[in-house]
Amino acid sequence: VEAGVAGYLLKDEAPATVVQAIRAVMGGGAWFSQKVVEKLARAGEWPALTRREQEVLRLVVLGKTDQQIGLELDLAERTVRYYLQKVYEKLGVNTRVEAAVQAVGRGWIANSER
After folding, report:
1. Higher pLDDT residue, 105 or 83?
2. What span, in angstroms and rounded, lies between the C-alpha atoms of 69 and 60?
3. Of residues 31 and 96, which shows the higher confidence score?
4. CB atoms < 10 A from the CB of 13, how many?
5. How would you label 47-57 residue by residue, b for 16+ Cβ within 10 Å and e otherwise?
6. Would you state the pLDDT for residue 114?
7. Nearest in space to 60 (alpha carbons), one of 76, 45, 52, 90
8. How many other C-beta atoms lie within 10 A of the C-beta of residue 73?
9. Residue 72: CA atoms inside 13 Å, Cβ hemisphere, count?
10. Which of helix, strand or coil describes residue 86?
């Protein structure tokens, strides 16, 4: 959106919706899939992460492994993975890279913390 896109459709949209979206954008309007709109509405907000989830995410941004995070926070690796899974769910991502990119890109992790 910041780059000026006028629409974004998910690949599971019905063909009729795709046609409707193309017509809307060609007519000077905008069209975004409902899931995209919901995600954009949440953009910039710090998701409801617990303090521990935030600590784990900060260490992920620093490039720490699960083992290193566990040692630093005095947690078992399995517990670190549990926290990471919760972070992924709350951020709507699937990998630690996506979580880190989102945390930095949204300004949740300040430059001084990196």
Report:
1. 83
2. 8
3. 96
4. 16
5. bebeeebbbbb
6. 44
7. 52
8. 15
9. 16
10. helix
